[in-house]
Amino acid sequence: MNLKFKAFLLVFKHPFGVSSNTRNETPTVFIKLTEGEHCGYGEACLPVYLGETREETIIFFRKAHTVLAKISAPLNLTEILNTIDDLSQVNNAAKAAIDMALHDLVGKMRAQTIAQMYGFAGAEPMSTSYTIGIDTEVKLIQKINDARDFSVLKIKAGTENDQALISFIRKHTDKPLYVDVNQGWKDKVFALDMILWMTTQNVVLIEQPLPVAMRDEMAWVTSQSLIPTIADESVKRFKDLQDLKGVFSGVNIKLMKCTGLAEAIKMIDFCKENKLLVFLGCMAESSCGTSAMAQLIGFADYIDLDAPLLYKNDPFSGVAYEKGKVILNKQPGIGAAPKANFLNTW
Ligand code: MG
Q1: Residue 345 in 3-state DSSP?
Q2: What is the rounded CA–CA span in Å between residue 346 and residue 344?
Q3: What confidence tens digit (pLDDT) does each residue in 51-77 have?
């Protein structure tokens, strides 16, 4: 196999604010994996807070290329992914890109979708939340209008003004809200008070209200909360799921955290067996990474897969959006393809 990579800067339509920072763009690195006449695409999406740089990611791809160059069809997906995983303790986004490209490649070789490859049913269209970052009141109104097709909004919170923020949003829409605190609250009693108040405001779930280190406090909050609590920063990979029961009600699984589709499927299985809610999210990937994750929406209780709509220069096409729902296509592999002008640059 041959691995090529291409660095790219995804540019947001509006600056995107979370509790720790605001950004205008997301660095990403796309890869193309070729074997014979087929190729597969993948994406390592690298928002700064993820802690994985473009330089480290490219070094990992160079290392992976030397390994993959020695492998040719027939491809054993599990074996290859284990070898890639062993190359480093970190680089989860880079590993996710390789996992995605491999699934895409093998899917195309076999003319199968991801669902067909794993033997599960294809998914019906599913409503995704539309993410609204922290912003000024004028911009918030603009974003609420942008989200008119969507039946649920995901609100980035985690500042001292969250009550004012939610009250303001409530003046402009009565849609159900997912609230993502991004570890922004620092006290368990404050967190519970906020959650109980938000419950009266049609907030239907709360994501990562407390810092990762406040595990015991988080378990207390979950035991008192009337709405589901969802882990995000607290859970990266499968191994982090083992002790989650009782601490959160569910988990936000993202390809960039968990190293890709193979591990995401393992995590979903664990969640189903242990009655944990499954939230499928993203790190604001293009249509490439988002289409890969969307292959698993049939297993999700909630999804937040609106990222391609937040960008003005998405170089891939993939899942479609209609009336706020994610719709899978029938293409083999991850269901994404580079747009013509980007394809020409490879
Ligand atoms: Mg989150």
Answers
A1: coil
A2: 6
A3: 999 999 999 999 999 999 999 999 999
Give the pLDDT confidence of 278-319 residue by residue, as tens digits. Answer: 999 999 999 999 999 999 999 999 999 999 998 999 999 999
Distance 88 CA to ligand 1 centre (A): 25
Among 9-13, 21-25, 80-84, 174-178, the range scoring the smallest mean pLDDT is 21-25
Quote the CA–CA distance of 87 and 40 in Å, as a whole number.
21
**What crossing angle do the helices spanning 77-85 and 261-273 adopt, rounded to 10°?**
100
Considering the chain, what percentage of its residues have pLDDT values greater than 90?
Answer: 90
Dihedral angle at the C-alpha atoms of 96, 328, 346, 70, nearest 10 degrees? Answer: 50
* Ligand 1 center from residue 345 Cα (angstroms): 33
**195 CA distance to ligand 1 centroid (A)?**
16
Q: Which domains does the chain show, CATH number per domain?
A: 2-113 (3.30.390.10), 118-341 (3.20.20.120)
Asked if residue 74 has a cis previous peptide bond (ω within 30° of 0), the answer is yes
CA 142–ligand 1 middle distance (angstroms): 22
Q: What is the Å distance from ligand 1's center to 74 Cα?
A: 38
CA–centroid distance, residue 182 to ligand 1 (Å): 5
> Cα of 84 to ligand 1 centre, how many Å?
27
pLDDT at 18 over 80: no
CA of 78 to the centre of ligand 1 (A): 29
> How many angstroms separate the alpha carbon of residue 208 from the centre of ligand 1?
7
Predicted pLDDT at 102: 98
Mean pLDDT, the chain, rounded, equals 95
Residue 17 in this model has a pLDDT that exceeds 80: no
